[in-house]
Design brief:
Layout (H helix, E strand, L loop, with lengths): L6 H4 L4 H10 L15 E5 L7 E7 L2 E6 L4 E4 L7 E2 L8 E7 L2 E6 L4 E5 L5 E3 L7 E6 L5 E5 L4 E4 L7 E2 L16 E7 L3 E6 L4 E4 L7 E4 L5 E6 L7 E5 L4 E4 L7 E2 L8 E7 L2 E6 L2 E5 L7 E2 L3 H4 L3 E12 L5 E11 L4 E4 L2
Length: 341
């Protein structure tokens, strides 16, 4: 989980004590499950020490990755998940998939690549640091972010990498190197990275230069930009941080999430927004104007981090196929769950 990965940083911050309180209360007594409306359907659950940190879905294909090299794949839109042979004992923390190419990043500069039906390959990134997320475009651009301000880019689908130097003193008085949790790539050399100190940085030149489009006190853990051309998007983070953009991330307005929980993942589409975090699942059906919180027993005593939507196709007699989209979440104990309508 994004927060758990960096206890060494949180120990020095005011958020640490609040986070410990959340951890110790995860197993606190709660109202009986039958008194709460089910918000999710758990599809798969592992052992207590399992954890899934990232989820990527495209159509009926999906991949979830996590602790100790855990990799789970679906080819039926999320209905069933198969455990893939482990390639490493390191934690896998981020995924991106474009066309036939898939990249996974993780601890110790780990980069794993696959093209089409080929074999998974462990690449030598030369980066060494913990990599927390990765993004890629169809033309081969890729960017990864990680601990202590690491930003690195690739122009050959992740085969080779170069670290990008950032003058962090431009973005905080002490020149601290923030942990970076999210990266988003857009066309024309556009890029956004986000992390500690409420930072969201934007680049128009593939990372050669950066401008701060958001700053604050709470860490930003995840960003979701619409792919439908609407220019909308959402960012979530620490202490209930929730922001919305109407100009593809050039500016951000804060929304009231109605909670101070750590929000770890966000997905949006067709006027709907879903947010997951520690003991939290928030949903909106009106483009983020209002949110409702799930009271499901399976949500309020757990945590989820990765979130994405898969598509299933069902044969409908002579008329062809019926396509349905479902939003899935991954997190504690290697759990994969479907958000219910």
């Amino acid at each position: 989980m994004k927060v758990l990965m960096f206890l060494q940083r949180l120990f020095e911050s005011r958020a640490f004590s609040a986070f410990l309180l959340l951890l110790f209360t995860l197993n606190a007594p709660a109202q009986e499950a039958e008194d709460r409306k089910s918000a999710i359907e758990v599809i798969r659950s592992g052992i207590p020490h399992d954890a899934l940190f990232a989820l990527e879905m495209t159509g009926e294909w999906g991949l979830a990755v996590g602790n100790y090299g855990l990799m789970l794949e679906t080819n039926d839109g999320g209905g069933t998940w198969n455990t893939l042979p482990p390639l490493t004992n390191d934690a896998l923390l981020g995924i991106t998939q474009v066309g036939e190419r898939t990249l996974i990043v993780g601890q110790n500069g780990l980069v794993i690549s696959k093209t089409g039906d080929g074999e998974w390959r462990l690449l030598d990134s030369g980066l060494g640091a913990r990599l927390l997320n990765v993004a890629m475009t169809e033309d081969g651009r890729a960017m990864t972010v990680g601990e202590f301000g690491l930003i690195a880019r690739s122009r050959d689908y992740g085969e080779t990498w170069e670290a990008i130097s950032v003058e962090w003193s431009k973005f905080n008085d002490e020149g601290y190197e923030p942990h970076l949790y999210e990266v988003v790539l857009t066309s024309g050399g556009g890029a956004m990275v986000a992390g500690e100190f409420g930072l969201i940085l934007h680049s128009r030149d593939d990372g050669d230069s950066w401008t701060a489009v958001a700053k604050g006190d709470e860490s930003v853990f995840d960003i979701d930009l619409a792919s439908d051309g609407s220019n909308s998007g959402y960012a979530v983070g620490q202490d209930g941080l929730l922001m919305r953009t109407a100009d593809s991330g050039q500016s951000w307005d804060r929304l009231d999430a109605g909670t101070n929980a750590n929000l770890l993942g966000v997905w949006s589409g067709e006027s709907e927004v879903a947010i997951v975090g520690i003991r939290t699942l928030l949903r909106s059906a009106d483009d983020g104007n209002t949110f409702s919180a799930a009271e499901d027993y399976a949500v309020i005593r757990t945590w989820y981090q990765g979130i994405d939507a898969g598509v299933t196709e069902t044969k409908a007699g002579e008329e062809g196929f019926v396509r349905r989209q479902f939003v899935y979440i991954v997190g504690h104990e290697g759990s994969i769950a479907k958000i219910l309508d």
